[in-house]
Design a protein that fits this description.
The structure holds two protein chains of two kinds.
Chain A: H1 22-27, H2 50-77, E1 80-84, H3 98-103, E2 110-116, E3 125-132, H4 139-142, H5 147-151, H6 179-182, E4 188-193, E5 196-198, H7 208-214, H8 245-251, E6 259-266, E7 275-281, E8 292-298, H9 309-334, H10 346-349
Antiparallel strand pairs in A: 1-8, 2-7, 3-6, 3-8, 4-5, 4-7
Helix pairs in contact in A: 2-9
Chain B: H1 3-11, E1 25-28, H2 32-38, H3 56-64, H4 68-81, H5 90-123, E2 126-131, E3 139-144, E4 153-157, E5 165-171, E6 177-181, H6 183-186, E7 191-195, H7 198-201, E8 212-215, E9 227-230, E10 237-240, E11 245-246, E12 251-253, E13 257-264, H8 270-273, H9 284-317, H10 346-361, H11 368-387, E14 401-402, E15 414-420, E16 426-437, E17 440-442, E18 448-450, E19 458-460, E20 465-467, H12 468-476, H13 481-495, E21 500-505, E22 512-517, H14 521-532, E23 535-540, E24 544-549, E25 552-562, E26 570-576, E27 582-588, H15 590-596, H16 603-618, E28 621-631, H17 633-648, H18 653-664, E29 669-680, H19 684-693, E30 697-701, H20 706-715, E31 724-728, H21 733-756, E32 763-768, H22 769-777, H23 781-790, E33 793-797, H24 801-814, E34 818-823, H25 829-834, E35 837-841, H26 848-852, E36 855-857, H27 863-900, H28 913-923, H29 925-934, H30 940-945, H31 951-954, H32 961-986, H33 993-1015, H34 1021-1041, H35 1052-1057, H36 1060-1087, H37 1091-1107, H38 1110-1116
Parallel strand pairs in B: 15-30, 15-34, 19-22, 30-33, 31-32, 32-33, 34-35, 35-36
Antiparallel strand pairs in B: 1-8, 2-3, 2-4, 4-13, 5-11, 5-13, 6-7, 6-12, 8-9, 9-10, 14-36, 16-17, 16-29, 18-20, 21-22, 23-24, 24-25, 25-26, 26-27, 27-28, 28-29
Helix pairs in contact in B: 3-5, 4-5, 4-10, 5-28, 9-10, 9-27, 11-27, 11-29, 12-13, 13-14, 16-20, 17-18, 21-23, 27-29, 27-32, 27-33, 28-34, 29-34, 32-33, 32-36, 33-34, 33-36
Classes of the chains: A alpha+beta, B alpha+beta.
Chain lengths: 354, 1120
């Protein structure tokens, strides 16, 4: 904002230094002169002039509106198919008692859903499961893990903070311990278009950094999921944690109570009006707390998934800025003031006021 | 005699009490063992250090926890250690407190180490102590200071410091005189004379053993001492007074050696007893800040209660689900107790826990770091004030001193200045200007000229202009009546004083330079004047003085001396002249002198002199009246007996001596009067004018006469001709009441008058000390206050030190106006301590005022840059910093709060605990401190050119409730933007907590820093480095935290920075968050500009114009 450097140099009174006065100066306690100690460092003094205010608003507006339009278009490009299946997959006779259904392991949990592709979807198509009302950010939950144990096989006994899924009843440490691992999501999906199986690629769904540094290659699950209450999936004790990608994804706890987790990718283009058959096993218990489970197929853009909000934010902020630019212009014309006019000083306006 | 000099004895009367035997300290000379056998007297080791290595930790911690804020810190940290409430990890929760404690402890330890070092050096110095010799006789042996004990006999050589308070026994001078410099004690650089008693002078020190000194208990009064000496085998008690004691910290000068006996040692010495630190004061801003802190506490409690209540509701509605919900897992199946729950104690307990956890999570709502920041900022501000070359006084070679570190910002809000006159407005360098001798006025300046050098042998270091006619009269007057009187007058000036001449060789070998050393500048001026007229005082011992009278050396015996005291207001000497006559010379204030002058001798003379006195004092001169009387032999002997009796008395010696003096000082013959000019300090009128323009009321409180005070008032432009003066000057209670009522009606009249016409008549109130006594006695303070507050100028004359404090209190009690007291003498101490801000002038009158002050400087005129420039800056900076700190922490807390609403009210934070802890310590601390130290709203020149700009501080424009509410609203809006824009954008996505947390951390840090950046007025490279560097540092910290594999959020920042959405959101949050602040700021600055704003614009656009404009030079450069 209109800046020009101006060092306030003021009669260099401090600098009396002459070589002749050397002896006298040694005794003097006069502070040494420097621009810093005299608080006269060269400085720029920006002032919000009308020109600057209007230009700032206008420029911000001009930058924001196009970004808003672009991101809105990008979000609109994303094709997203969402299917809530937790209700539908409960057999008709059990709808009154969903908890009994999910807890009874003798009832088969298989379920078939058909999804209709609303628009052409370019590969890769991301397969997510979405949980609603699952507080993965609940304090009890997020804290219940031990990251040291996940990296290093020698630290299997480090189960602090893992309560209440810390050890087995006979005191053996659970690997991976804690509520998060214990509650691992265990619904599975198999996709088909007509008779053609759509392979879901489950490789590399987790962060590379997690696979390589956070979850040990030589750490294997032990004593996992054999307590009296089963929270979710079991893990194959012969596969190291760094290869248990579903677990790795799950353990990146979501920030918000409604969240998606990547299940896999389908590297096939889908056409409009394609019918996708999903054979899923509905194992995960969300009935106990009124949570919802959804299957999501989605393409992606540089901005992520299908969310208009960012575009609207940019449009609104940009629009507001342009409005303010005009409003200020108008105001400046209606009520102009000469900047730096000493007649506006309060004691000049009311000479008798003091 | 000026009251100001001797005022100290009036209010420091600790030693004035008469000495009784029962509470006396008994010192056996040369026998330290027996001296401290019964009562343990302090040894001479001093200890200014507070801690020892062992006690450091407990004592330092104890002192630090005196601050309430630290206790709050501690309670929170302790709460967090309870397993149920463990919000943060151990390390993270203790870190802020530990950080603050360690920083302070290191600072304290360093300071204490320096004190230890100086203590060691001080205690290890050597002094020659008389040790009883084995057979061969006693010898002086070098002993370390710390081993010196009460009762030891010491020998000090020239230029050596005194290790303890000692009574002089003998000196190298045959007369027993010793000269000491008290620079370290009271800052007075002139030499003081001290005497050893004749009785001990000739005895070798080792034979004095057995003598006993009884003295008063240790006290702080450096100007008082009462004791007596009882020699072995003699029943007579020799009186000892202040002139017989030399104090620790002084240096022996111009005396080859002196022998004395230690009476007070170590911490009981007067120097150490006076070493009390500056008084603790609290700044106005800080007091106001407490109000806002209470508001914030209320907000904190509301937030916590809300979270606790909502969590209760949530638990109630989800009660059935808690057992099976994977994220809750209520039961603990490993528990032996089959129904055992894991960390769940029922809803009621849960609500309490959640409340306490909320307090822990939201703790920084109360900005603890602010207290440390404020201390650092004040240190920085003090550094700049001390280093300001414009506050450096060349004549006394003193820098500005910040003695109190916590009221810097009060300097920006002063509304009322109470100033002492002598030494503060005036230089207290007296100059003899004129005399009225024998009813003839010699005040014509045109006749005066410097003394002709010529054949003079003696050259006093103070040159005086002489009246040629007077000189002629003295030289050629011969035996005329007039000539004799004139000579007597100057003889009186040369004899009736306590000045010591120090003679040194001048450049010309034939000439001697005389340096007149003495405690009173008035006396120095008078003696110099006498010398200029040919009455040169050249030698003084305790028994006689030598005066060079017109080239002929004459010896006068000093038979007795009645020192000046503030009751008699005069002093007298009894002189034995060479012609064996005995003369009494008296000089004193006119009010006291006319009472003892025999007016029957020559009433015309008295009247003429009175007239001259009046005209002198209206010129602003200090006047003294001189009288004399020849004593008959009988009279003299009667006096001598009374004098000796009184001066050896143990009980009521002071009163007895006063009685003796009053008895002899009567029926005096009037010789004349002198007029001494008390020169104004440089730039005083300009400074007062500036202060007045700045809306600061200036009150002058002086001990001087009304006429002198008024004339000084005129000469320093305090009073102007167009002012209406209200004078309250009463001798009785009733007339005082009446004149006060008159004053009120007058004020009312003028005030009603002023509403009619725009031009207001300025009023000045002049009141004297007597009237003040009546007013304070009769509870009419309220009325006085009414009058005083309506007047532009108040001048109080003839006031005693305690009255000065009373007047300050009058204003302080009834208004919220910030008061500032400035003075230089011991008589100003009470006023300086009473006022909100006390300033000491480190000038002529010693260091008592400086010791009691909050700030000290060399000149009165420095008050202008101090208040108008530094005060203004300090206030503006501190005010903004406090508000900003409130805003900054509140924004963070609100942001956490919004997130808590989406976590089942369980106080999870997406932001890592380390970031939460580091937020106010590292992420955002440096810029606000730097800005609060360096930012300037206006330049020095503008502030001095428009003193009215000072009004901003007086009206509390930079810190008030309105600004607080506005900035809190801004804080809420910004927290909403920071939280909800990412929240809505990331809803139903794969975003993990750590990534979102990092985004929030960075957005809040960027936003609050940009907020600060937007309010910075002057950008220099340090500001740039601090603000942008802080953002970069935050980024680096976040990256470091995310590079630790065992942190749950490992690598999140790198991952999220790879997405476009992150950058888009960061930009959107920043812009959306700043729009209201920017728009409001732009609107306010343009459409409702403050004076500061307009001045800023003027500064910017007229700078180039002003540089070449001569007017600026005149109005800003106050120094002459």
């Amino acid at each position: 904002m209109n800046s020009h450097a101006a060092g306030t140099s003021n009669g260099g009174s401090g600098d009396a230094g002459g070589a002749g006065a050397g002896a006298a100066r040694r005794n003097t306690r006069m502070p040494k002169y420097s621009k810093f100690t005299q608080q006269e460092l060269p400085a720029c003094k920006p002032i919000l002039t009308p020109k600057w205010v209007v230009s700032v608003f206008f420029i911000v507006g001009v930058i924001f509106v196009p970004i808003g339009v672009v991101s809105l278009l990008a979000a609109r490009d994303v094709v997203e198919i969402i299917d809530r299946y937790d209700e539908a997959c409960v057999p008709g006779n059990m709808t009154e008692n969903k908890l009994a259904y999910i807890q009874n392991s003798s009832i088969p949990k298989d379920c078939t859903r058909t999804l209709m592709v609303t628009k052409d979807m370019k590969q890769p198509i991301f397969v997510y499961y979405q949980l609603d009302n699952f507080y993965q950010n609940h304090r009890r939950y997020v804290k219940s893990r031990n990251d040291a144990q996940l990296r290093d096989p020698s630290k299997a006994n480090k189960t602090s903070a893992c309560e209440p899924e810390k050890t087995t009843a006979d005191g053996k440490p659970i690997v991976p311990c804690g509520l998060i691992a214990w509650s691992l999501f265990n619904d599975t999906y198999i996709f088909a278009r007509g008779n053609e199986n759509l392979t879901v690629d489950k490789k590399h769904i987790s962060w590379k950094s997690d696979r390589e540094h956070k979850f040990g290659k030589d750490v294997y699950p032990s004593n996992f999921q054999n307590g009296s209450l089963i929270g979710g999936a079991k893990l194959d004790p012969n596969i190291s944690l760094s290869e248990q990608e579903d677990l790795i994804v799950w353990m990146r706890t979501a920030a918000l109570p409604t969240f998606r987790k990547l299940y896999g990718r389908i590297y096939v283009d889908l056409k409009e009006n394609d019918n996708i058959t999903v054979r899923l096993s509905n194992n995960y218990n969300t009935y106990s707390f009124g949570g919802k489970k959804k299957l999501v197929l989605s393409t992606a853009t540089w901005l992520g998934g299908k969310n208009d909000f960012l575009g609207y934010t940019y449009l609104i902020v940009g629009g507001l800025c342009i409005f303010l630019a005009f409003a200020f212009t108008l105001l400046y014309f209606i009520k102009p003031r000469k900047l730096g006019d000493h007649n506006y000083l309060s004691w000049n306006r009311h000479p008798a006021g003091r | 005699m000026a009251e100001d000099h001797h005022g100290s004895s009036r209010h420091m009367s600790a030693s004035q009490k008469d000495l009784g035997d029962e509470d006396a300290r008994v010192v056996r000379v040369g026998d330290a063992e027996r001296t401290s056998e019964r009562l343990e007297y302090a040894g001479n080791a001093v200890r200014t250090a507070k801690y020892s290595p062992l006690t450091f930790l407990p004592r330092n911690l104890f002192e630090q926890f005196h601050r309430l804020a630290y206790v709050y810190f501690l309670v929170i940290a302790v709460l967090n250690q309870l397993p149920q409430l463990a919000v943060f990890g151990r390390g993270a929760s203790v870190m802020p407190l530990a950080f603050v404690l360690i920083v302070t402890a290191v600072k304290d330890a360093y300071e204490d180490w320096r004190r230890h070092r100086s203590d060691r050096a001080e205690n290890g110095r050597l002094a020659a102590v008389l040790s009883p010799g084995e057979g061969a006789g006693a010898q002086f042996r070098p002993t370390e200071w710390k081993h010196v004990r009460v009762g030891d006999v010491l020998r000090i050589v020239s230029n050596e410091s005194l290790p303890a308070d000692m009574v002089l026994l003998a000196t190298s001078e045959p007369t027993g005189v010793a000269y000491v410099q008290t620079l370290n004690l009271d800052g007075e650089s002139n030499l003081k004379t001290r005497y050893a008693k004749q009785e001990t002078l000739s005895t070798p020190p080792d034979q004095l053993t057995g003598a006993v000194i009884r003295c008063e208990r240790p006290n702080r009064n450096v100007y008082g001492f009462q004791a007596n000496l009882e020699l072995e085998g003699e029943s007579r008690r020799i009186p000892l007074g202040p002139s017989n004691i030399v104090l620790r910290g002084c240096e022996l000068k111009n005396t080859a050696w002196a022998v004395g006996v230690v009476v007070y040692a170590g911490r009981e010495t007067k120097a150490m007893l006076n070493n009390a630190g500056a008084p603790k004061k609290r700044s106005r801003l800080e007091t106001h800040m407490n109000r806002e802190t209470l508001f914030l506490s209320a907000i904190l409690v509301v937030l916590c209660a809300l979270v606790a209540a909502l969590s209760g509701v949530w638990l109630r509605t989800h009660e059935e689900e808690l057992e099976l919900a994977q994220f809750f897992h209520k039961r603990d199946y490993l528990s032996k107790d089959k129904d055992g729950n894991y960390n769940y104690y029922g809803i009621a307990a849960q609500i309490v826990f959640i409340f306490l956890m909320a307090v822990i999570v939201f703790q920084i709502m109360i900005p603890i770091s602010l207290y440390i920041s404020m201390e650092l900022v004040r240190l920085g501000q003090a550094y700049f004030m001390i280093r300001d070359t414009r506050l450096y006084d060349e004549s006394s070679n003193t820098r500005f001193q910040c003695r109190a570190l916590n009221i810097n910002e009060d300097l920006g809000q002063v509304k009322c200045v109470f100033s002492d006159k002598t030494g503060t407005l005036t230089q207290n360098k007296m100059e003899f200007r004129c005399a009225s001798i024998d009813g003839i006025d010699y005040s014509d300046i045109t006749r005066q000229q410097p003394v002709a050098e010529g054949d003079r042998i003696w050259a006093p270091n103070i040159s005086v202009n002489t009246d040629s006619e007077l000189v002629k009269l003295i030289r050629d007057g011969g035996d005329t009546y007039q000539g004799r009187h004139t000579r007597e007058f100057f003889l009186a000036l040369a004899t009736c004083n306590t000045i010591v001449p120090m003679i040194t060789d001048g450049a010309d070998p034939k000439k001697k330079v005389i340096d007149y050393q003495g405690e009173s500048p008035d006396e120095q001026a008078l003696v110099s004047a006498a010398a200029a007229y040919g009455f040169v005082l050249v030698e003084r011992t305790s028994g006689h003085i030598v005066i060079d009278v017109l080239g002929e050396k004459q010896r006068y015996e000093v038979l007795g001396l009645h020192e000046f005291d503030s009751d008699r207001k005069r002093m007298s000497v009894i002189i034995g002249c060479p012609d064996k006559t005995v003369m009494l010379f008296v000089k004193g204030a006119d009010s006291s002198m006319f009472g003892v002058i025999d007016k029957t001798i020559n009433s015309d003379l008295v009247q003429a002199t009175e007239k001259h006195l009046h005209s002198y004092s209206s010129l602003g001169l200090r006047t003294l009246v001189i009288g004399m009387r020849e004593l008959s032999q009988a009279e003299f002997q009667e006096w001598q007996m009374a004098y000796e009796k009184a001066s050896t008395a143990l009980l009521g010696r002071g009163n007895l001596l006063r009685g003796v003096a009053a008895n002899i000082e009567r029926n005096l013959r009037l010789l004349g009067a002198s007029g001494i000019e008390d020169k104004l300090q440089d730039g005083v009128p300009e400074a007062i004018e500036k202060l007045r323009q700045a809306g600061i009321k200036v009150w002058v409180l002086t001990g001087d006469k009304q006429e002198t005070a008024i004339s000084i008032g005129y000469s320093c432009k305090l009073l102007t001709r167009e002012m209406t003066q209200i004078v309250i000057n009463s001798h009785s209670r009733d007339s005082c009441t009446k004149s006060l009522d008159d004053a009120i009606s007058m004020v009312d009249k003028f005030q009603s008058f002023s509403t009619d016409s725009q031009a207001r008549v300025p009023l000045a109130l002049i009141i004297d000390g007597n009237s003040l006594v009546y007013i304070f006695d009769t509870d009419r303070e309220e009325k006085l206050f009414e009058v005083a507050i309506a007047c532009d100028v108040v001048l109080c004359c003839r006031v005693a030190p305690l009255q000065k404090a009373g007047i300050v209190d009058l204003i302080k009690k009834r208004t919220s106006d910030m008061t500032l007291a400035i003075g230089d003498g011991a008589n100003d101490v009470s006023m300086i301590q009473m006022a909100d801000v006390g300033i000491g002038i480190s000038g002529q009158e010693g260091r008592q005022a400086v010791m009691a002050s909050d700030f000290a400087m060399g000149q009165f005129r420095f008050l202008v840059p101090l208040l108008l420039v530094h005060g203004h800056w300090n206030y503006q900076r501190m005010g903004y910093m406090i508000l900003y700190n409130f805003y900054r922490n509140a924004t963070f807390v609100f942001m956490l709060f919004w997130y808590v609403l989406y976590t089942g009210f369980t106080l999870t934070t997406a932001i890592t605990e380390w970031s939460s802890v580091l937020y106010s310590v590292i992420y955002t601390a440096v810029p606000t401190i730097v800005v609060a130290i360096l930012d300037k709203d206006l330049g020095r020149r503008t502030l001095l050119k428009y003193p009215q700009l000072y009004g901003a501080g007086q009206c509390e424009e930079n810190y008030n409730l309105r600004l607080f509410i506005f900035i809190m609203m801004d804080s809420v809006w910004q927290s909403l933007a920071i939280f909800f824009i990412p929240y809505l954008a990331y809803r139903k996505s794969v975003i993990d907590g750590a990534s979102l947390g990092d985004l929030w951390t960075l957005s809040v840090v960027i936003l609050v820093n940009i907020h600060l950046a937007m309010d910075v007025i002057r950008w220099n490279w340090i500001t740039h480095a601090a603000i942008w560097g802080s953002i970069v540092a935050t980024w680096i910290c976040v990256m470091i935290i995310d590079s630790i594999p065992i942190m749950p959020g490992f690598w999140a920042i790198y991952k999220v920075m790879g997405t476009g959405l992150f950058w888009a959101l960061l930009l959107a949050v920043t812009v959306a968050g700043m729009i209201p602040h920017f728009a409001a700021k732009a609107f306010k600055e343009y459409f409702t500009p403050s004076d500061i704003q307009i001045a800023r614009e003027m500064e910017k656009w007229q700078d180039t114009h002003d540089v070449t404009h001569p007017e600026v030079q005149m109005s800003t450069v106050v120094r002459v």
